[in-house]
What does this fold into?
Amino acid sequence: MATQAECEVFINQIAPLCVKYAAAYGYKNVSGAIGMACLESGYGLSRLAAEFHNYFGMKCGTKWTGASVNMRTMEEYTPGTLTPISDNFRVYDDMESGVRGYYEFLELARYRNVREQDTPEAYLSEIKTAGYATSSTYVQDVLAVVAAHNLTEWDKYMTGQENAATGQQDAQKGGYNMYSRQKVVDYANSQVGKKESDGSYKSIIDTYNTLPADQLPRRTRMQYGWAWCACFWSAIAVALKYLAIMPIEISCYYLIEAAKKLKVWQENDAYIPAPGDAVLYDWDDSGQGDNTGNPDHVGAVTYVNTASGYMVVTEGNYGNAVKKRTISLNGRYIRGFITPKYDDGAIAEPDKTGGKSISEVAHEVIAGQWGNGAARKRDLTAAGYDYDAIQSEVNRILNGSAETAKNENSTDQAQPTARKVTATCYAHKFDEGVAGTYITTANLYCRNDAGTNKKALCLIPEGTKVQCYGYYNVSGGVNWLYIQFVMDGTQYTGFSSADYLKKA
It folds into this structure.
Protein backbone atom coordinates (compact mmCIF):
# COMPACT_ATOMS: atom_id res chain seq x y z
CA MET A 1 0.00 0.00 0.00
CA ALA A 2 1.27 3.45 -0.91
CA THR A 3 2.28 5.85 1.85
CA GLN A 4 0.82 9.36 2.03
CA ALA A 5 4.06 10.78 0.65
CA GLU A 6 4.03 8.30 -2.25
CA CYS A 7 0.42 9.22 -3.02
CA GLU A 8 1.25 12.92 -3.12
CA VAL A 9 4.29 12.42 -5.35
CA PHE A 10 2.29 10.36 -7.83
CA ILE A 11 -0.63 12.80 -7.95
CA ASN A 12 1.71 15.75 -8.47
CA GLN A 13 3.32 13.91 -11.37
CA ILE A 14 0.27 12.64 -13.18
CA ALA A 15 -2.39 15.30 -12.47
CA PRO A 16 -0.83 18.06 -14.62
CA LEU A 17 -0.54 15.60 -17.50
CA CYS A 18 -4.19 14.62 -17.12
CA VAL A 19 -5.13 18.32 -17.20
CA LYS A 20 -3.02 18.82 -20.31
CA TYR A 21 -4.56 15.99 -22.31
CA ALA A 22 -8.09 16.36 -20.97
CA ALA A 23 -7.95 19.90 -22.36
CA ALA A 24 -6.43 18.75 -25.62
CA TYR A 25 -9.19 16.17 -26.17
CA GLY A 26 -12.00 18.46 -25.05
CA TYR A 27 -13.05 16.91 -21.71
CA LYS A 28 -14.86 18.95 -19.07
CA ASN A 29 -13.80 16.96 -15.99
CA VAL A 30 -10.34 15.74 -14.97
CA SER A 31 -10.60 14.74 -11.29
CA GLY A 32 -12.36 11.51 -12.26
CA ALA A 33 -9.46 10.52 -14.54
CA ILE A 34 -6.85 11.37 -11.89
CA GLY A 35 -8.75 9.25 -9.37
CA MET A 36 -8.88 6.36 -11.86
CA ALA A 37 -5.11 6.53 -12.35
CA CYS A 38 -4.55 6.44 -8.58
CA LEU A 39 -6.85 3.46 -8.07
CA GLU A 40 -5.88 1.44 -11.15
CA SER A 41 -2.11 1.84 -10.65
CA GLY A 42 -1.88 1.77 -6.85
CA TYR A 43 -0.50 5.33 -7.05
CA GLY A 44 2.01 4.34 -9.69
CA LEU A 45 3.43 1.38 -7.71
CA SER A 46 1.85 -1.50 -9.63
CA ARG A 47 4.09 -3.40 -12.01
CA LEU A 48 1.89 -2.41 -14.97
CA ALA A 49 2.40 1.26 -14.07
CA ALA A 50 5.99 1.26 -12.81
CA GLU A 51 7.45 -0.85 -15.64
CA PHE A 52 5.05 -0.34 -18.54
CA HIS A 53 3.59 3.14 -17.88
CA ASN A 54 -0.01 1.93 -18.15
CA TYR A 55 -1.66 3.84 -15.31
CA PHE A 56 -5.29 3.13 -16.21
CA GLY A 57 -5.32 -0.64 -16.60
CA MET A 58 -6.08 -0.47 -20.34
CA LYS A 59 -6.20 -3.79 -22.16
CA CYS A 60 -5.10 -4.09 -25.76
CA GLY A 61 -8.41 -4.91 -27.42
CA THR A 62 -8.60 -5.54 -31.15
CA LYS A 63 -7.43 -2.12 -32.37
CA TRP A 64 -4.16 -1.80 -30.44
CA THR A 65 -1.04 -2.24 -32.59
CA GLY A 66 1.62 -1.15 -30.09
CA ALA A 67 3.66 -3.09 -27.53
CA SER A 68 1.86 -5.27 -25.01
CA VAL A 69 2.44 -7.37 -21.92
CA ASN A 70 0.43 -10.35 -20.65
CA MET A 71 -0.49 -10.07 -16.98
CA ARG A 72 -2.86 -11.58 -14.42
CA THR A 73 -5.80 -9.54 -13.17
CA MET A 74 -9.13 -9.92 -11.38
CA GLU A 75 -12.52 -9.27 -12.97
CA GLU A 76 -15.97 -9.11 -11.34
CA TYR A 77 -18.21 -10.61 -13.99
CA THR A 78 -20.71 -11.70 -11.31
CA PRO A 79 -21.43 -9.16 -8.52
CA GLY A 80 -19.41 -10.07 -5.46
CA THR A 81 -17.34 -12.75 -7.20
CA LEU A 82 -13.78 -12.10 -8.42
CA THR A 83 -12.48 -14.19 -11.30
CA PRO A 84 -8.71 -14.38 -12.01
CA ILE A 85 -7.81 -14.05 -15.71
CA SER A 86 -4.78 -13.35 -17.90
CA ASP A 87 -4.98 -10.66 -20.55
CA ASN A 88 -2.81 -8.44 -22.74
CA PHE A 89 -2.29 -4.85 -21.56
CA ARG A 90 -1.03 -1.81 -23.47
CA VAL A 91 2.59 -0.73 -22.94
CA TYR A 92 3.82 2.88 -23.13
CA ASP A 93 7.26 4.52 -23.15
CA ASP A 94 6.78 7.01 -20.31
CA MET A 95 4.19 8.65 -18.07
CA GLU A 96 3.18 11.30 -20.58
CA SER A 97 2.58 8.79 -23.38
CA GLY A 98 0.63 6.63 -20.89
CA VAL A 99 -1.69 9.53 -20.03
CA ARG A 100 -2.05 10.51 -23.67
CA GLY A 101 -2.83 6.85 -24.43
CA TYR A 102 -5.70 6.91 -21.95
CA TYR A 103 -7.39 9.79 -23.74
CA GLU A 104 -6.74 8.14 -27.10
CA PHE A 105 -8.40 5.01 -25.68
CA LEU A 106 -11.48 7.05 -24.78
CA GLU A 107 -11.86 7.98 -28.47
CA LEU A 108 -13.59 4.60 -28.91
CA ALA A 109 -17.22 5.16 -29.89
CA ARG A 110 -18.69 3.67 -26.74
CA TYR A 111 -17.10 6.41 -24.62
CA ARG A 112 -18.44 9.31 -26.71
CA ASN A 113 -20.68 10.60 -23.91
CA VAL A 114 -17.88 10.76 -21.33
CA ARG A 115 -16.42 13.95 -22.81
CA GLU A 116 -19.39 16.14 -21.85
CA GLN A 117 -19.61 15.14 -18.18
CA ASP A 118 -18.48 18.01 -15.94
CA THR A 119 -18.43 16.35 -12.48
CA PRO A 120 -16.42 13.34 -11.28
CA GLU A 121 -19.66 11.54 -10.36
CA ALA A 122 -21.12 11.94 -13.85
CA TYR A 123 -17.75 11.24 -15.54
CA LEU A 124 -17.21 7.98 -13.68
CA SER A 125 -20.82 6.82 -13.98
CA GLU A 126 -20.72 7.29 -17.73
CA ILE A 127 -17.35 5.56 -18.11
CA LYS A 128 -18.59 2.62 -15.99
CA THR A 129 -21.81 2.38 -18.04
CA ALA A 130 -19.71 2.28 -21.22
CA GLY A 131 -17.97 -0.84 -19.93
CA TYR A 132 -14.58 0.46 -18.73
CA ALA A 133 -14.57 -1.61 -15.52
CA THR A 134 -16.33 -4.73 -14.24
CA SER A 135 -16.17 -3.89 -10.51
CA SER A 136 -19.66 -3.29 -9.10
CA THR A 137 -18.25 -0.62 -6.74
CA TYR A 138 -15.91 1.03 -9.25
CA VAL A 139 -17.57 4.45 -9.22
CA GLN A 140 -17.75 4.59 -5.41
CA ASP A 141 -14.14 3.38 -5.08
CA VAL A 142 -12.77 6.05 -7.41
CA LEU A 143 -14.90 8.79 -5.84
CA ALA A 144 -13.46 7.84 -2.46
CA VAL A 145 -9.97 8.48 -3.89
CA VAL A 146 -11.12 11.80 -5.35
CA ALA A 147 -12.47 12.89 -1.97
CA ALA A 148 -9.46 11.64 0.03
CA HIS A 149 -7.03 13.75 -1.99
CA ASN A 150 -9.31 16.69 -2.83
CA LEU A 151 -8.76 16.00 -6.53
CA THR A 152 -11.63 18.26 -7.57
CA GLU A 153 -9.17 21.15 -7.08
CA TRP A 154 -7.71 20.12 -10.43
CA ASP A 155 -11.07 20.64 -12.15
CA LYS A 156 -10.69 24.41 -11.94
CA TYR A 157 -7.90 24.15 -14.51
CA MET A 158 -10.40 22.91 -17.08
CA THR A 159 -11.77 26.45 -17.57
CA GLY A 160 -10.42 29.19 -19.74
CA GLN A 161 -8.74 26.98 -22.34
CA GLU A 162 -6.72 29.15 -24.67
CA ASN A 163 -5.10 26.47 -26.78
CA ALA A 164 -6.75 23.08 -26.46
CA ALA A 165 -4.48 21.52 -29.08
CA THR A 166 -1.44 21.85 -26.83
CA GLY A 167 -3.06 21.94 -23.44
CA GLN A 168 -1.91 25.50 -22.77
CA GLN A 169 -4.19 27.70 -20.73
CA ASP A 170 -4.54 31.40 -20.11
CA ALA A 171 -3.86 32.27 -16.49
CA GLN A 172 -5.57 35.63 -16.97
CA LYS A 173 -8.78 33.78 -17.73
CA GLY A 174 -8.61 31.41 -14.82
CA GLY A 175 -6.55 28.71 -16.49
CA TYR A 176 -3.22 27.24 -15.50
CA ASN A 177 0.14 27.10 -17.21
CA MET A 178 1.36 23.84 -15.79
CA TYR A 179 5.08 23.89 -16.48
CA SER A 180 6.78 27.28 -16.58
CA ARG A 181 10.32 28.10 -17.74
CA GLN A 182 10.22 31.24 -15.65
CA LYS A 183 9.59 29.27 -12.45
CA VAL A 184 12.66 27.08 -13.12
CA VAL A 185 14.81 30.14 -13.79
CA ASP A 186 13.53 31.95 -10.70
CA TYR A 187 14.03 28.94 -8.45
CA ALA A 188 17.56 28.28 -9.75
CA ASN A 189 18.57 31.90 -9.24
CA SER A 190 17.03 31.96 -5.75
CA GLN A 191 19.64 29.39 -4.68
CA VAL A 192 22.66 31.49 -5.74
CA GLY A 193 25.03 31.96 -2.82
CA LYS A 194 24.32 28.67 -1.07
CA LYS A 195 27.64 26.99 -0.39
CA GLU A 196 29.47 24.21 1.36
CA SER A 197 31.55 26.44 3.65
CA ASP A 198 28.54 27.52 5.75
CA GLY A 199 26.43 24.40 5.19
CA SER A 200 23.66 26.27 3.37
CA TYR A 201 23.99 23.95 0.33
CA LYS A 202 22.56 21.12 2.44
CA SER A 203 19.04 22.48 1.91
CA ILE A 204 19.39 21.57 -1.78
CA ILE A 205 20.25 17.98 -0.92
CA ASP A 206 17.48 17.86 1.68
CA THR A 207 14.95 18.98 -0.93
CA TYR A 208 16.00 16.19 -3.27
CA ASN A 209 15.79 13.63 -0.47
CA THR A 210 12.14 14.48 0.26
CA LEU A 211 11.25 11.99 -2.48
CA PRO A 212 10.25 8.54 -1.20
CA ALA A 213 12.98 5.92 -1.64
CA ASP A 214 11.19 4.16 -4.49
CA GLN A 215 10.88 7.46 -6.38
CA LEU A 216 14.62 8.14 -6.18
CA PRO A 217 16.65 7.11 -9.24
CA ARG A 218 18.35 3.80 -8.51
CA ARG A 219 16.82 4.14 -4.99
CA THR A 220 19.89 6.14 -3.97
CA ARG A 221 19.54 8.90 -1.38
CA MET A 222 21.90 11.84 -1.86
CA GLN A 223 24.60 12.25 0.78
CA TYR A 224 26.35 15.38 2.03
CA GLY A 225 29.91 15.46 0.70
CA TRP A 226 29.04 13.92 -2.68
CA ALA A 227 29.41 15.93 -5.86
CA TRP A 228 26.08 17.75 -6.07
CA CYS A 229 25.75 19.53 -9.40
CA ALA A 230 23.20 17.02 -10.76
CA CYS A 231 21.40 17.07 -7.43
CA PHE A 232 21.00 20.86 -7.79
CA TRP A 233 19.14 20.48 -11.11
CA SER A 234 17.11 17.58 -9.70
CA ALA A 235 16.18 19.49 -6.55
CA ILE A 236 14.63 22.19 -8.75
CA ALA A 237 12.40 19.56 -10.34
CA VAL A 238 11.45 18.13 -6.94
CA ALA A 239 10.72 21.54 -5.40
CA LEU A 240 8.51 22.63 -8.31
CA LYS A 241 6.93 19.19 -8.73
CA TYR A 242 8.07 19.08 -12.35
CA LEU A 243 9.12 15.42 -12.33
CA ALA A 244 6.91 14.62 -15.30
CA ILE A 245 9.01 16.81 -17.62
CA MET A 246 12.39 17.21 -15.89
CA PRO A 247 14.64 14.15 -15.55
CA ILE A 248 16.36 13.78 -12.17
CA GLU A 249 19.55 12.03 -11.06
CA ILE A 250 22.59 12.58 -8.86
CA SER A 251 24.97 11.41 -11.59
CA CYS A 252 25.57 13.46 -14.74
CA TYR A 253 25.93 10.28 -16.81
CA TYR A 254 22.63 8.85 -15.63
CA LEU A 255 20.98 12.26 -15.91
CA ILE A 256 21.61 12.11 -19.66
CA GLU A 257 20.17 8.59 -19.77
CA ALA A 258 17.09 9.77 -17.87
CA ALA A 259 16.69 12.68 -20.29
CA LYS A 260 16.81 10.27 -23.22
CA LYS A 261 14.01 8.20 -21.67
CA LEU A 262 11.87 11.35 -21.37
CA LYS A 263 12.82 12.25 -24.96
CA VAL A 264 14.21 15.63 -23.86
CA TRP A 265 17.90 15.11 -24.64
CA GLN A 266 19.52 17.35 -27.25
CA GLU A 267 22.85 15.85 -28.39
CA ASN A 268 23.94 18.78 -30.56
CA ASP A 269 26.58 21.07 -28.96
CA ALA A 270 25.52 23.90 -31.28
CA TYR A 271 21.90 23.80 -30.13
CA ILE A 272 20.64 27.21 -28.97
CA PRO A 273 19.00 26.57 -25.58
CA ALA A 274 16.26 28.54 -23.86
CA PRO A 275 16.14 29.56 -20.19
CA GLY A 276 14.92 26.59 -18.18
CA ASP A 277 16.97 24.08 -20.18
CA ALA A 278 20.01 22.35 -18.66
CA VAL A 279 23.50 22.23 -20.15
CA LEU A 280 25.86 19.29 -19.55
CA TYR A 281 29.65 19.76 -19.71
CA ASP A 282 32.58 17.49 -20.48
CA TRP A 283 35.91 18.95 -19.39
CA ASP A 284 37.77 16.62 -21.80
CA ASP A 285 36.15 18.28 -24.82
CA SER A 286 38.76 18.93 -27.50
CA GLY A 287 36.74 21.74 -29.01
CA GLN A 288 36.61 19.87 -32.35
CA GLY A 289 33.33 18.45 -33.68
CA ASP A 290 30.40 17.30 -31.57
CA ASN A 291 31.32 16.32 -28.01
CA THR A 292 30.09 12.82 -27.06
CA GLY A 293 32.35 12.18 -24.06
CA ASN A 294 31.54 11.40 -20.45
CA PRO A 295 29.70 14.31 -18.75
CA ASP A 296 31.28 15.98 -15.73
CA HIS A 297 28.97 18.80 -14.73
CA VAL A 298 25.51 20.30 -15.25
CA GLY A 299 23.74 23.61 -14.69
CA ALA A 300 20.42 25.33 -15.39
CA VAL A 301 20.38 27.83 -18.27
CA THR A 302 18.93 31.05 -16.84
CA TYR A 303 19.64 33.61 -19.58
CA VAL A 304 20.38 33.44 -23.31
CA ASN A 305 21.62 36.30 -25.46
CA THR A 306 21.51 34.95 -28.99
CA ALA A 307 22.56 38.22 -30.59
CA SER A 308 25.75 38.35 -28.54
CA GLY A 309 26.33 34.61 -28.65
CA TYR A 310 26.39 33.71 -24.96
CA MET A 311 24.31 32.17 -22.18
CA VAL A 312 24.31 32.39 -18.41
CA VAL A 313 24.12 29.15 -16.46
CA THR A 314 23.26 28.81 -12.76
CA GLU A 315 25.18 25.84 -11.38
CA GLY A 316 25.36 23.88 -8.17
CA ASN A 317 28.78 22.74 -6.95
CA TYR A 318 30.55 25.49 -8.92
CA GLY A 319 33.49 26.24 -6.66
CA ASN A 320 31.56 24.33 -3.97
CA ALA A 321 28.67 26.81 -4.18
CA VAL A 322 25.72 27.84 -6.34
CA LYS A 323 27.12 30.34 -8.80
CA LYS A 324 26.56 31.72 -12.29
CA ARG A 325 28.76 31.00 -15.29
CA THR A 326 28.73 32.89 -18.59
CA ILE A 327 29.76 30.80 -21.61
CA SER A 328 29.61 31.15 -25.36
CA LEU A 329 26.89 29.44 -27.35
CA ASN A 330 28.34 26.34 -29.01
CA GLY A 331 31.38 26.84 -26.80
CA ARG A 332 34.01 24.37 -25.75
CA TYR A 333 33.10 21.84 -23.03
CA ILE A 334 29.40 21.69 -23.94
CA ARG A 335 28.26 18.06 -23.92
CA GLY A 336 24.59 18.60 -24.74
CA PHE A 337 21.29 19.91 -23.38
CA ILE A 338 18.19 18.79 -21.51
CA THR A 339 15.12 20.46 -23.03
CA PRO A 340 12.01 19.90 -20.86
CA LYS A 341 8.63 20.26 -22.57
CA TYR A 342 7.30 23.36 -20.84
CA ASP A 343 3.77 24.59 -21.39
CA ASP A 344 4.71 28.21 -20.76
CA GLY A 345 7.88 29.40 -22.48
CA ALA A 346 7.63 33.07 -21.53
CA ILE A 347 10.73 34.52 -19.86
CA ALA A 348 11.04 38.00 -18.37
CA GLU A 349 14.01 40.09 -19.43
CA PRO A 350 16.55 40.33 -16.59
CA ASP A 351 16.82 43.56 -14.66
CA LYS A 352 20.11 45.37 -15.18
CA THR A 353 20.22 46.16 -11.50
CA GLY A 354 19.66 42.56 -10.53
CA GLY A 355 23.13 41.90 -9.18
CA LYS A 356 24.53 39.86 -12.05
CA SER A 357 28.01 38.43 -12.07
CA ILE A 358 30.92 40.43 -13.49
CA SER A 359 31.13 38.00 -16.40
CA GLU A 360 27.45 38.39 -17.26
CA VAL A 361 27.57 42.18 -17.17
CA ALA A 362 30.76 42.13 -19.24
CA HIS A 363 28.93 40.24 -21.96
CA GLU A 364 26.12 42.80 -21.81
CA VAL A 365 28.70 45.56 -22.24
CA ILE A 366 30.10 43.83 -25.32
CA ALA A 367 26.56 43.49 -26.66
CA GLY A 368 26.11 47.26 -26.36
CA GLN A 369 23.46 47.13 -23.63
CA TRP A 370 25.29 49.65 -21.42
CA GLY A 371 26.19 52.28 -24.02
CA ASN A 372 29.68 53.71 -24.54
CA GLY A 373 32.33 55.89 -22.94
CA ALA A 374 31.45 58.08 -19.98
CA ALA A 375 27.78 57.11 -20.13
CA ARG A 376 28.67 53.42 -19.75
CA LYS A 377 30.89 54.14 -16.72
CA ARG A 378 28.21 56.32 -15.15
CA ASP A 379 25.40 53.77 -15.61
CA LEU A 380 27.46 50.80 -14.41
CA THR A 381 28.59 52.68 -11.32
CA ALA A 382 25.04 53.85 -10.60
CA ALA A 383 23.83 50.24 -10.81
CA GLY A 384 26.36 49.25 -8.15
CA TYR A 385 28.96 47.54 -10.34
CA ASP A 386 32.76 47.87 -10.16
CA TYR A 387 33.52 49.55 -13.49
CA ASP A 388 37.22 48.65 -13.52
CA ALA A 389 36.51 44.95 -12.74
CA ILE A 390 33.92 44.77 -15.50
CA GLN A 391 36.17 46.50 -18.03
CA SER A 392 38.96 44.08 -17.15
CA GLU A 393 36.63 41.14 -17.81
CA VAL A 394 35.55 42.72 -21.11
CA ASN A 395 39.18 42.94 -22.18
CA ARG A 396 39.78 39.33 -21.14
CA ILE A 397 36.81 38.09 -23.17
CA LEU A 398 37.72 40.10 -26.26
CA ASN A 399 41.31 38.90 -26.09
CA GLY A 400 40.24 35.25 -25.94
CA SER A 401 38.73 33.65 -22.86
CA ALA A 402 39.67 30.24 -21.55
CA GLU A 403 37.93 28.42 -18.74
CA THR A 404 39.94 28.10 -15.56
CA ALA A 405 41.49 24.64 -15.54
CA LYS A 406 42.16 24.32 -11.83
CA ASN A 407 40.12 21.86 -9.81
CA GLU A 408 40.45 22.81 -6.19
CA ASN A 409 38.34 20.05 -4.71
CA SER A 410 37.74 16.49 -5.81
CA THR A 411 33.98 16.86 -5.25
CA ASP A 412 33.73 20.08 -7.23
CA GLN A 413 32.67 19.18 -10.75
CA ALA A 414 32.56 22.72 -12.03
CA GLN A 415 36.07 22.95 -13.46
CA PRO A 416 38.08 20.74 -15.79
CA THR A 417 40.98 18.74 -14.42
CA ALA A 418 44.26 18.64 -16.26
CA ARG A 419 43.49 15.14 -17.57
CA LYS A 420 41.48 12.01 -16.87
CA VAL A 421 42.34 8.32 -16.59
CA THR A 422 39.29 6.08 -16.79
CA ALA A 423 39.02 2.29 -16.72
CA THR A 424 37.91 0.73 -19.99
CA CYS A 425 35.95 -1.97 -18.12
CA TYR A 426 32.54 -1.27 -16.59
CA ALA A 427 30.89 -2.11 -13.29
CA HIS A 428 28.17 -4.74 -13.54
CA LYS A 429 26.67 -4.65 -10.04
CA PHE A 430 24.91 -1.95 -8.03
CA ASP A 431 23.99 -1.67 -4.35
CA GLU A 432 22.93 1.65 -2.84
CA GLY A 433 24.38 0.50 0.48
CA VAL A 434 27.84 0.46 -1.09
CA ALA A 435 27.68 4.11 -2.16
CA GLY A 436 29.62 6.63 -0.10
CA THR A 437 32.93 8.34 0.57
CA TYR A 438 35.81 6.02 1.47
CA ILE A 439 39.35 6.42 2.81
CA THR A 440 42.14 4.08 1.71
CA THR A 441 43.59 2.13 4.66
CA ALA A 442 46.83 1.28 2.82
CA ASN A 443 48.70 2.18 -0.34
CA LEU A 444 46.26 0.79 -2.87
CA TYR A 445 46.19 0.22 -6.62
CA CYS A 446 43.37 1.57 -8.73
CA ARG A 447 42.92 -0.97 -11.53
CA ASN A 448 41.24 -1.29 -14.91
CA ASP A 449 38.92 -4.06 -13.62
CA ALA A 450 38.35 -6.22 -10.56
CA GLY A 451 41.28 -8.47 -9.66
CA THR A 452 44.92 -8.19 -8.63
CA ASN A 453 45.97 -9.40 -12.08
CA LYS A 454 44.31 -6.45 -13.85
CA LYS A 455 46.18 -3.44 -15.21
CA ALA A 456 47.04 -0.82 -12.57
CA LEU A 457 46.02 2.75 -13.40
CA CYS A 458 47.81 4.32 -10.44
CA LEU A 459 48.88 3.77 -6.82
CA ILE A 460 46.62 5.55 -4.32
CA PRO A 461 48.39 6.72 -1.15
CA GLU A 462 47.04 5.58 2.21
CA GLY A 463 44.52 8.06 3.65
CA THR A 464 43.17 9.26 0.28
CA LYS A 465 39.44 10.05 0.03
CA VAL A 466 37.66 8.35 -2.88
CA GLN A 467 34.02 8.31 -3.98
CA CYS A 468 31.85 5.31 -4.87
CA TYR A 469 28.33 5.73 -6.25
CA GLY A 470 27.22 2.18 -5.49
CA TYR A 471 28.79 0.32 -8.43
CA TYR A 472 31.22 -2.58 -8.17
CA ASN A 473 32.48 -5.88 -9.61
CA VAL A 474 33.40 -9.11 -7.80
CA SER A 475 36.64 -11.08 -8.14
CA GLY A 476 37.69 -14.01 -5.96
CA GLY A 477 34.79 -13.38 -3.61
CA VAL A 478 35.95 -9.79 -2.97
CA ASN A 479 34.04 -6.66 -3.91
CA TRP A 480 36.05 -4.27 -6.08
CA LEU A 481 34.43 -0.84 -5.85
CA TYR A 482 34.16 1.40 -8.87
CA ILE A 483 35.67 4.59 -7.45
CA GLN A 484 36.57 8.11 -8.53
CA PHE A 485 39.07 10.57 -7.09
CA VAL A 486 41.44 13.37 -8.07
CA MET A 487 45.17 13.09 -7.46
CA ASP A 488 47.84 15.53 -8.64
CA GLY A 489 45.40 17.26 -11.00
CA THR A 490 44.27 14.01 -12.66
CA GLN A 491 40.83 12.47 -12.21
CA TYR A 492 41.01 8.66 -11.91
CA THR A 493 38.06 6.31 -12.31
CA GLY A 494 38.58 2.59 -11.81
CA PHE A 495 38.40 -0.37 -9.42
CA SER A 496 39.96 -0.91 -5.99
CA SER A 497 39.55 -3.71 -3.48
CA ALA A 498 36.96 -3.04 -0.77
CA ASP A 499 39.26 -4.81 1.71
CA TYR A 500 41.39 -1.66 1.83
CA LEU A 501 38.62 0.94 1.75
CA LYS A 502 36.90 2.26 4.88
CA LYS A 503 33.79 4.43 4.79
CA ALA A 504 34.55 7.96 5.91
About this structure: The chain has 13 helices and 19 strands. The two ends are 36 Å apart (CA to CA).
